[in-house]
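Most newcomers find our protein records easier to grasp once they have seen one. A learned vocabulary of local backbone shapes supplies the integers on the structure line. Here is such a record, shown just as it appears in the course material:
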Amino acid sequence: MRDWFSEAQELRNKGYGYLKIAKTLGLSVNTVKNRFQRLERKQKNLNNLKQNVIKELNKGCNVNEIIKKFKIGKEQVNKIFEEIEKDGFDLEKIDGMYVIRKYPQEQSSIKNFKLNEGWHLIGVVSDTHLNSKHQQLTYLNKIYDIFESEGVTNVLNCGDVCAGFGMYKGQEFEVFNLGADAQLNYMEQLYPKRKNIKTYVIAGNHDLSFYNKLGFDIIKKLAFLRNDIEYLGQYGAYLKLAEGALVYMLHPDSGQSYAISYKPQKIANSIPYDSKPDIMLIGHYHQAEYIFEKDIHIVQCGSFEGQTPYLKRKGISPKIGGWLIEFKIDNGTITRFKPELFTFKKELSKDY
């Protein structure tokens, strides 16, 4: 038999107060109130314990040390570790010691799509830099509307979903939310959400600014909060569209060259033959370009952040927009490829 409290929680999530819940379920107000307050106290105690364990993990510790210090069992330690990882931290075990990892690295995970033969559509965006005063949220929503109207169900985002913090001197004057919690909350609420679209994302260097300082992977946490977003890892990931058909999503960590095609060509030349993708999607540079190099369809994904003072000092003019890509799979090979760029030339001021 279902516990009445499960239904009470559903009603609470809909905005019902204690009195209305009690009337709906035929209970006394005190019964409802006391049950919720017990849960709140339990959650508060768990959160306090979790924060104390995080402090120990920042220094490095083993399970027995946590058990002894906080007088809890091994099962509860494992549960706390799970909660910490859900909160966007990565735990690493080194010689029996657990520590919160704070050095991001390309994980090159593989997501298997198992697409059928024939034509397919994907949407591509990158460098949305939400929480930047120069974000182009209106255009980001417009391109998601385009994707939706074209029947796109999968969108790929090549990193720098958020503005991050402390990336360069003076960045604090170019963002309107400073802390990790504030930036996460803003993304959770305002990153485009469409009924039949799922977004697959990697983390870029701005996203990982919090990771370098705190060990907190803000995009990992975002994906946990939003069921329409799936996190593929830091800096890079592979998508296996079909047997033998690969997409490589990449967010490099280097400066832009004079010729916008130079870096993508260098990256293509550096990829080992056995890892060579059919399609490579590159973020970070805020440029929009398609080239075919080393038998790879290479797309620089564009951006949804305008020209910040920092970019202006660097002489970088961002290309605001994203891509609708149509491709055909024949016998596990991409035989046709049609990229379409949607550009938004007039930068919007104070689009936040």
The radius of gyration is 23 Å.
